[in-house]
Give the backbone structure.
Amino acid sequence: MFTNENKFNEPIFSISTAARILNISVHTLRMYEREGLFISFKNNSNQRLFSQSDIERIQCIRTAINEAGISISGIKTIYSLIPCWKIKGCLEEDRKKCDAYNNSHVPCWSYEHKNFCKDKNCRECEVYYKYSQCGAIKELIKSISR
Ligand code: SF4
């Protein structure tokens, strides 16, 4: 049975449709992906498909760039500060060897992980789909500092 959440997360839009909905070019959309601002879903034919949730994420990125004046590097830095090690409960010894824990330039899902996150599908990880969504980072910081 399909719930509203299923529909929201179902990848159904082609890249050209997504670009049209977002009123940006396919080139820009690909550039955001290369920069690690979002992770696209690819079907068996390696075709990128976008869900409504992806569209809203990218809309939020566009607002940050166009209205708040945050650069792409700035957005990547903000994502890199999400404490994925805390959310995923990584062990102290794993943290010491983890690029995502030790650097603050790019989101954790941009690294090629050798340890804990190796072989994980980042698109299905809560750090990506939950905590890096619009507004979620601030709520996360509030919950940690409570
Ligand atoms: S699985 Fe991917 S998104 Fe999740 S914490 Fe690891 S690198 Fe980050």
About this structure: The chain has two domains: 1-70, 71-146. The longest strand covers residues 48-50. The CA atoms of residues 82 and 141 lie 9 Å apart. The chain has ten helices and three strands.
